[in-house]
């Protein structure tokens, strides 16, 4: 059921430790706590600085059990609660927000033909509201009545709802109301009883923890010294960033989300499908709304961001920033490797070392995603290679009708011979397993999908590139057959 776990070499984990140690300084943040995890759990944790508790002038080093605010990482819990209610039939993602927050009906929309923002629009940060981090971070404690009064006074819009991305805490505050209305219970109770307790996240809470090992106090730098900040209390905006958590708990949460991509056909023991199925967790971790201005393609899913790295494939993440705190969680679904990190200083940007650490680990363990092709694709490779190199016949049943209609076979065979002649005689390639279903890019193989395969045969003056793509029929047939010469690859 479960994909095997990657083993990370000790020296690679030592490099992560040095990365955080080199970043630490008395001026940057009073403390940090971080952890690296694989599918089996945490494999290395570390910390810098000290946690100073009330009445303690010396302080103690943080551990993986030290509690920090995770701020906007909370949004993934909000999205999970919404999808769980959707799966039960308690709501529809395309319902307008006015079905749950009647006061929103008094909001004047930006144009006469603007749609009322839907639950889906708010989940994907496309409700049309302006980006609002500095303002939203200070609204946690407001009440339902205060939000209704704000709505009745009117809202400002950056765009027509449903047309573009803008990170919106207001949108996720409204989603907290959706959860409460659909469940018939307060938002914080829904998340606690339906997500945190079943997953055993005992150190994750919406209130300042009591009875736990240590709790980091948030700080801001002023006049060259660290000034402690008071905690805001829970309220209507808790759904945007109100949770406290630990490296132990947040890594378990991230592993649970990432496990939705483990190989298998359904929920497995330990998947806790009663909280949210693997199918719905995969739905969360898709890019639905493009986020502009990034080096790699990245989009917002449901409570998480999804980046497509050209070498590593999809990477899922979310940052959290609250007055006095910085948090980041980041994982690679294909390998199950991830990193979480906290720092207790305003604008500390712990996302920087977490991102650097994860990408370094993934390259160290060779975690570039491998495509598993269909057995029919592997079998077609053998038949096509024999036809191209030895003049063997391709059974008509293997080819879709368009192949000969697109380029008649006499013309194809002449072009194949010309291509082989241009690169010199083919060199006997290394033996390969014709039954292998895993594409190895290092061997000159490429695949964009199980139905697709590119491979190369070496020649004296280059290589012969062969590409096939199969049809959506069952059984599938070859619909694309491209053969061409390539010059030698540069070292």
From TrEMBL:
Residues 18-351 form the Beta-lactamase-related domain. Gene3D superfamilies: DD-peptidase/beta-lactamase superfamily. PANTHER family: BETA-LACTAMASE-LIKE 1-RELATED, PENICILLIN-BINDING PROTEIN. Belongs to the beta-lactamase family. This is CubicO group peptidase (Beta-lactamase class C family). It comes from Frondihabitans australicus.
């Amino acid at each position: 059921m479960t994909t095997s776990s990657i083993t990370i070499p000790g020296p690679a984990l030592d490099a992560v430790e040095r990365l955080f140690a080199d970043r630490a300084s008395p001026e940057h943040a009073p403390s940090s706590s971080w952890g690296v995890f694989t599918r089996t759990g945490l494999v290395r944790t570390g910390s810098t600085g000290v946690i100073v508790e009330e009445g303690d002038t010396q302080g103690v080093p943080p551990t993986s059990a030290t509690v920090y605010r995770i701020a906007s990482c909370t949004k993934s819990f909000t999205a999970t609660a919404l999808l769980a209610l959707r799966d039960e039939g308690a709501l529809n993602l395309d319902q307008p927000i006015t079905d749950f927050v009647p006061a929103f009906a008094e909001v004047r929309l930006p144009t006469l033909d603007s749609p009322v923002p839907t639950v889906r629009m708010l989940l994907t940060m496309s409700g049309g509201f302006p980006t609002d981090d500095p303002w939203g971070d200070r609204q946690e404690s407001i009440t339902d009545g205060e939000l209704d009064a704000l709505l009745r006074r009117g809202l400002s819009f950056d765009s027509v709802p449903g047309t573009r991305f803008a990170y919106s805490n207001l949108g996720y505050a409204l989603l907290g109301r959706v959860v409460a209305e659909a469940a018939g219970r307060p938002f914080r109770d829904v998340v606690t009883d339906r997500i945190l307790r079943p997953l055993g996240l005992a150190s994750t809470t919406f209130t300042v923890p009591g009875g736990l090992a240590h709790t980091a106090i948030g700080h801001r730098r002023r006049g060259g010294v660290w000034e402690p900040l008071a905690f805001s209390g829970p309220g209507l905006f808790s759904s945007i960033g109100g949770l406290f958590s630990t490296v132990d708990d947040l890594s378990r949460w991230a592993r649970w989300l990432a496990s939705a991509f483990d190989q298998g056909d359904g929920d497995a023991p330990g998947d806790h499908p009663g909280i949210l199925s693997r199918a719905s967790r995969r739905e969360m971790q898709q890019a639905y709304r493009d986020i502009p201005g990034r080096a790699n393609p990245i989009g917002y899913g449901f409570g998480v961001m999804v980046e497509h790295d050209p070498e590593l494939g999809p990477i899922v993440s979310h940052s959290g920033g609250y007055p006095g705190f910085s948090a980041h969680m980041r994982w690679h679904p294909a390998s199950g490797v991830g990193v979480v990190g906290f720092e207790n200083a305003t604008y500390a940007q712990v996302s920087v070392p977490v991102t650097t650490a994860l990408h370094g680990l993934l390259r160290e363990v060779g975690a570039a995603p491998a495509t598993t092709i269909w057995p029919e694709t592997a079998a077609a490779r053998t038949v096509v290679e024999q036809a191209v190199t030895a003049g063997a016949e391709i059974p008509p049943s293997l080819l879709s009708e368009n192949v000969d209609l697109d380029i008649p076979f006499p013309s194809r065979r002449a072009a194949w011979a010309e291509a082989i002649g241009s690169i010199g005689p083919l060199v006997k390639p290394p033996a390969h397993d014709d039954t292998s279903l895993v594409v190895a890019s290092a061997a000159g193989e490429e695949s964009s999908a199980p139905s697709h395969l590119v491979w190369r045969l070496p020649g004296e003056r280059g290589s012969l590139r062969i590409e096939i793509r199969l049809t959506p029929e069952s059984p599938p047939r070859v619909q694309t057959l491209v053969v061409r010469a390539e010059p030698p690859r540069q070292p």
